[in-house]
Batch of 2 targets.
Target 1
Amino acid sequence: MVNGINLALQFLDSFAFIVLAAAGLAIIFGIMGVINLAHGEFILIGAYTATLAVTQLGLPLVVAMLVGGLVTGLFGILTERVIISGAWPNYISQRTLGRDVIEPLYDRLADSMVATFGLSLILTQGARIRFGNSIDQIATPFGAISYGEFSYSSYRIVLAGVSIGLLLVTYYLFTRTDFGMRARATIQDKETAQAMGVNTDRMYMLTFGFGSALAGLTGALFAPVISMQPTLGDQFLVEAFVAVVVGGPSVVLGTALSGGVLGAILATFSNLYGTFIGRIALLVAALIALRFLPNGITGFIEQLRKRRQESD
Amino acid sequence: MNRSSVSRRQFLGASGAALVTGLAGCSAGEGGTSTDTASSTDTLKIGVLEDQSGNFALVGDPKAKASMLAIEEINANGGIDGKQIETFQRDPQSDNQRYQELTRTAINEENVDALWAGYSSATREAIRPIIDRNEQLYFYTTQYEGGVCDEFTFAVGPTARQQLGIVLPYLVEEFGPDIYTIAADYNFGQLSADWVKVLANENDANVLGEEFIPLSESSFGSTINRIQEADPDFVMSMLVGANHTSFYEQKASAGLDVPIGTSTAMAQGYEHRRLDAPAMANIYAGVNYMEEVPTDSNTGDGGFVDRYFEMYPDAPYLNEEAETNYFSTYMYKKAVEQAGTTEQPEVIEALESGIELGTEEAPEAPEGETIKLDGATHHVDHHMWIMRADEEHNIEAVENRQIPETFLSETAGCNLPENPEQTQYTPVDYYEEAE
């Protein structure tokens, strides 16, 4: 028997998971053209930071989560400066060797994959060496709601709310603020943006940092419900990439739409036929989407819009 | 008794072997147990391949550590029949392909006299063909689904019939006959779920439903709803690995408070220590060993727990499989001494004569009194425990008794000394209800 409330709650749960898993990746990939295979480990940093902030420092959970996002954001900026843009190594090498040693990884998809894959291995193993094979986990807050014979974790519903909030904040940031306008200008046409007085270097750094902070916040938000171990990032990576690819070029709208579509598919199939079939259905849906919508959902919408404009 | 590395070195210094230790040391063991003396006839070599990274690192790392503890203890007490033990220790990283490569290396290049390798059943099945082809003496030490009747494999961990066989009847009696099974979706979980059906039938209980969950899954919302819909008296959980641990936290936060029987939780991944209470409340583990098992040789002064944490002060937990690695190393020692040689066919024959621990000349096994290797099936008649976690995650022993392995010996008729074979028997072949 299918229970409507179960289905609705699981849809919210899947939606939140997919959106949160994909949010940071969508910005770094969709806006900056960098495939960040260390995305899962950015989530790991957020999750570990938040958990340790609670268990070791005794911070309140909400504060610990913000710290998790902040620390990951700073780590993202460090990564961008050292590996992705190579600004700091180049600064040093300019003064010692008289030339650049690192070619920036922007819009070099395959190269950025290899570099960030290496980073992900280092981070996973680093976490294992520093913290061991697991760290103590914090309990899930807020208890449960009951309805009939069923009950559901309230925290999972809060996560859904937070995911929508994050989408709105991101949308606002990139479309309604000065920072967002400069960031988008930088990504669309670097030279022109520079000519207009935009510090494009700084824009790259901040955008990467913001994407990283979102990934860290995702880890922090999920810290109370997933097992705290060095490979926890793997759990997010498949959903994140599927969501970004299915979503297409428009970051916020694409993530929201693919979270909605894929979340609905995942929730329906795992509710009806079990977790395993749910997972299969998700991947089949991604296959079909890629076959018929090679530019993702938002790419398809864009295409429709163009066609209508032409026919007008 | 002080068996720290300092006392070991003092021992070696006294016996004069320390002079050559540095020169001939070639072991990769982190315990630094290489104690090679000049002539190779004075040493024997043990291979230890256990996961120290990857998905099974949490449960595999204590196995490697406990092997090194046993080896260090044996070496400090004069070795096996006067031979010091060398080790070939590597981390296969929870990767079956790497396991196959390292198993070949251990056998063909390192010429190990005995091999301990692998956490998961999938790993065991990945390397067993290599082991059989090379006629390599092999100890598989994880608790597992049971049924491996193999002339070269000694599956010395408890089987599903032993683990579930102690906990399931108890839960039926305490809570009622309706069971819901959740299990990891690979050979271990599938076969364990079949055993739940067999045992349910034997105990007049019924399985309302079952779900198999991929090892990569960490979201259990729909599983929890399905359990609530079925409304069982208790759940049998054979979830495996780090991702599946999320289930316990999630079921607690969703308010699912049905009792859970398990052969996998707590004793291996010490969830009762890692997760905030009360995630593991009312969970009953059917196990041969947990760090909390209240025997004198385990938690007593200078017992197994003391010795382990003296050697590894930073280790988080001493788990079920670690104990199996530990006592099986002593079983091997006893067999070599009985055979008077490290030649593998002779050692296997000695093991098949029915090695016992807890007798006068061999140490007690930490899980309890005497335990005995059954020569016919290469399995162990374990001392089994039901360990329960309460709301504060305190562990109490609810029940304990010796449970012999019966599926291979009585049902499948496995008798390796008389009829050498390399088969894994499954319950489906013998029980209608398992289908």
Note: The mean pLDDT of chain A is 89.
Target 2
Amino acid sequence: MKYAYYPGCSLTESAREFDISTRAVMERLGAELTEIPDWTCCGASAAEPVSELMNYVLPARNLAIVEQEMDGIDVLAPCAACYLNLYKVNREVVGDRHLHARLNEVLAASGLTYGGNVRVRHLIDVLKNDVGAKIVEQKVTDSLKGMKIAPYYGCQILRPYPVFDDPGKPVSMEPFITAMGGEVFRWSMSNRCCGASLMVAHPEVAVKSVAAILADAEGADAIVTVCPLCQMNLEAYQDKAVKAGGKAVPVLYLTQLMGLALGLDQKAMQLDKNLTLTPSVRQDIKTRAWAVPEPETDAETAGMNG
Amino acid sequence: MSEPVRKTWSPASEEYQSILGGLRESVGACMQCGTCTASCPNWHAMDVTPRAMWRMIQFGMLDEILESRTFWMCSSCYMCTLRCPRGLKLTSAMAALKRLARVDGSAAARRNSAFYEAFMDDVEAHGRVQETSMMQRYFLKRKSPTVPLAFLPLGMKMLSKGKVHLPSRGQGGVLKPLFAKAREMEGL
């Protein structure tokens, strides 16, 4: 399992713990990640409102490098926006002769060309279809028994292109949560938008979405995400969201939690970087506080025996 | 032609025409079912519903479109695109409306597109986005001291967690030739 790894800008900045945990976990699971040489930004959701052409050119430049220098192996992107942008070049440009020609005309300014032969995969897609939950289950050394984990998919890994899961009712993270020994927390907001970059320009609008998501996660021990922007919005604005009716819930990257279950320590997974992981939450994770069953009350015991 | 009707057909420049033309093509098949509006997580912040916006595009109601804040409230979650029974690329249409408003260049458009522009300027300068320098660019574009102040508590929190990094050269100007070529081709 060899992949051309595309970390994306956030993972080299405020989401380094996502990058580090992804690399560590994928290595444990037997995948070989090679970073795309000299990769550049995919444009996130900011390119399309500025330039239609750059919206395709920015991600395509990276695919062109993979096609020419890395024998066209599959690209692995952990970030939702990076994944969609890279993926949509294949979906929307390749096959459209006019647009494809325009794209290559721009790329030619850097001596590049993209033929359309690189497959783009999201981290979850690779985990589900190439790795499999069984391998994770076999390698788990520190079970997360009793931990109620709410999988948060966000928007762009399944929308508008549902490649590896049902965008209306995504379930692809669930076998991995179970494999780690955790309990899947059922909720209805797992694919609700967090507000994305609206949090910067119109925070009053995005905080409402985050509050609704966090309110629905009440009762979960943790939310796991696979998108640096979802993580940022759910974590960094949690104080404001709680004031707007949300509930405080620790938020981790799926790969951080997987790393812990696979025997890596909190330091290696950089749990101290998460804004919602207070020392007491980290202590709970360390001692597996959720594994201790709550004492049964007399009334319940009596009822069950009677 | 009566006065109000003529107003909706205000003369549009060539730049407007090309973006508006593309937009009309992309939402031309809209049958006004309203699934997009019902799917939008940010509908509560919009002054015109997405469904009504597609109708306004079909009618070419440029002034009304440009006065609206609807498209600025799109967070690109693609729920409308996913659910559209006509298979229209509605999220891309919202992005095209943002581009149209930028050509218009009103004060509201400058304010609302400041983040996207700051992001793209940073990409052009460094090849990759560097969050601190991108936010600096954003603050400069907003020209309001209250904007950076609002981010100060979060900035401090992130600093204490080691999540803030000083800007570096990044990949340098590796993308500059591509930006220049795209600008030339798009005439922007």
Note: Residues 14 and 300 of chain A are 47 Å apart (CA to CA).
